Amino acid sequence: MNMTIGNSTFTITLADNTTALAFADLLPLRLNMSELNGNEKYIYLDQSLPSQPTSPGTIQTGDLMLYGSTCIVLFYESFSTSYRYTRIGRVDNPAGLAAAVGSGSVTVSFER
């Protein structure tokens, strides 16, 4: 799957789970994602996706996760967390991701 932010395109490898399959079925998507905590962009979908949340312990730059059953979260900084997420996928090469997403809301396009 590809993710485009402005002029930057990133390849995402989807997780092998029902959440990733359900997300892929929604593609193509163009989402206006909001900023949170200086390390993530998020948006709530109008529909629920299947979830099997686990505690990853550490979030890695480039992780694409589901929080709850409707919140898509793209992480652009690594950090430790006690929150539970369901993995959707991960950016293969997250170099330049933080610069691409910037500090405010950002439009992110996902396509196969």
TrEMBL record:
Residues 3-111 form the Cyclophilin-like domain. It comes from the Bacteria. It comes from Barnesiella viscericola DSM 18177. This is Cyclophilin-like domain-containing protein. Gene3D superfamilies: 2.40.100.20. InterPro entries: Cyclophilin-like, Cyclophilin-like_dom_sf.
